[in-house]
Amino acid sequence: MSFLLKWTSPTRHRGLSPPGTNGERPAKRALPSGPERGLAILPNELIPTILTRVDSRSLFRVAQVSRRFNELSTRSWLQRHGMKPSQLSSGQAVIHSDFPEEAFAALRCALFLRKNPLSSLSCVMTPSVVTANAILKLASLISWFNPRLATTELDFGADMITQSITTKPLARTLANLFCVLSSDSPTTVFVLKDGLFTCRPDALRRWSPATGHYEGGWSESNYSNVHMHDGSRQKVPTIRSLQRLSIKYPLHSAAPSPFNKWKLVVVDVASLTDLQLSVKLLPHEWAAILDALTLPALVCVGLWAEAIGTATSTRFFNRHPQIRTIKYMSPAADALPPGCAPLRLPALETLNTLVPYLVHILAVPDDAASCAEDDASAADALIAPHRFSRLVQIELRPHARLHEALLLASAHAPLRALTLWSLSPTYLTPTWPVFPSVRLLTLNESPLHVLLAAGLPVLLAHAFPSLRRIELNYAWANTDVGVKQMEREQRAFVGAVREKNLGVGVFMFDGREWSG
Asked: Region annotation Disordered: residue ranges (predicted)?
């Protein structure tokens, strides 16, 4: 026990009586027993000064004496670790301490007698103090809260995956932490670089941070198999770095079951710039997850899941106006429901998509006609060039509605580069619209002799007056002609284009610039 507690012991100050007792000996239960008894005779103004000098074990003993001592002791204990008691009253706790294990104990002791439950916890640790025991105590603290925390932010200060490769106890405690995070929910959604997955409470019991596998194994890999919440086994990205965890519970508090019990865990949200949506989920599950997800650093999205509706993806994209690249490979392009705002991405630069989705987002929304009658400026804001002011590159696959998509793309003034895949002669018709600003045209998987036979140079002269660069990528290994025949076709194509006086200065064939 600290010498300060011994100094306040009644045996050291005989003859002194607590205020209001008139020298009479107090009742047996009026004062605590042991060295803590001496604190009871001191005024509240002096006790905090003494408590700042005692150790954590003594603070814990003092906090158990009475409600009055609990408040005084825990206040001193919290301030020692950078926490403010006023934050606890508002349901928030911020831990930023060089001794996280003691800070966890102080927080638990301070909340024991408080009626207001904690709803938010933020813990920031320095790499030098992150040990296996500290993570174990952290997992115990998170599982102790009842009701469960609505939001939790854990910052370890360094990449835990790198450290767990050389430290086996740390790897085991990290796996235990993830089990704790998902144990109190029937389904946990993990969002990380390149993708996301759902899992049952016991799905990560065999997760190995050192190897990256969720179901065991010893070889490192960027992808692994995991049992999803519906029992299916799917290939999902592994957790390759771990510095920060952002936890939200539930997905939607007002949503119907089961989403009011699902939990969302985002790994390294500050550095999550690339997200690929490809796992197989039901449409209402995708809607619940994406509506609850906000990633401030997101700039690139790949959407492959066919179950993601257009309204769901539009709401998600509109919440992330900083997105610069989208690869939309889902065939879903249904009309937006009433009340859903049209897609607006002012930072979008590159769009790689299927024809139906391009027609969907570039077409003038139905609201524009009604807005034009009331407010012309509001109607102009719904036009594609205003909603995608930086969209300069579009990439398309062949489709029956290709001509409609090309017509809408040609009206998009910022467009500078166009990429088309697998063009057949049926698509190369004189009815193509004019692209006045396109300077780069890329054609992939289109044999050169087919393009020549279909009169591509004539089409280029008509549709691309500002063209300066042509790239053709048709993979020589997939053609039936030899190298010399290919060179003759390239020479004929370059000569035919130059005859049209298009001003094309650069010709690229399979990544190599023409120098003939």
From this structure: 7-35
Peptide bond into 430 cis (omega under 30): no
Q: In what side-by-side order are the strands of the sheet with 325-328? A: 274-277, 300-303, 325-328, 350-353, 393-396, 417-421, 440-444, 469-473, 506-509, 512-513
The DSSP result for 295-362, as a single string, is -TT--EEEE--TTS-HHHHHHHHHT-TT--EEEE-----PPPPTTPPPP--TT--EEEE-HHHHHHHH
Residues 6 or more apart whose CB falls under 8 angstroms from that of 128 comprise: none
Residue with tokens 């009340």: 339
Encoded tokens for 92: 């928030």
- Per residue of the chain (516 residues), give pLDDT as tens: 444 344 344 444 343 333 344 444 444 444 445 555 556 555 666 566 556 656 666 666 665 555 566 666 677 777 777 788 788 888 889 888 888 888 898 888 777 767 678 899 999 998 888 889 999 999 999 988 888 899 999 999 999 988 887 788 888 899 899 989 988 899 999 999 999 999 988 888 888 887 788 876 555 568 888 889 999 999 899 998 999 999 999 988 776 778 889 999 999 999 999 999 999 999 999 999 999 999 999 999 999 999 999 999 999 999 999 999 999 999 888 888 888 889 999 999 999 999 999 999 998 765 544 444 444 454 455 566 689 999 999 999 989 999 999 999 999 999 999 999 998 888 888 889 999 999 999 999 888 888 888 889 999 999 999 999 999 997 654 556 677 888 888 899 999 998 887 789 899 998 889 876
pTM of the full predicted structure?
Answer: 0.83
Separation of CA 388 from chain center:
23
Neighbours of 224 (CB within 10 A): 20
Residue 35 · residue 86 · CB < 8 Å: no
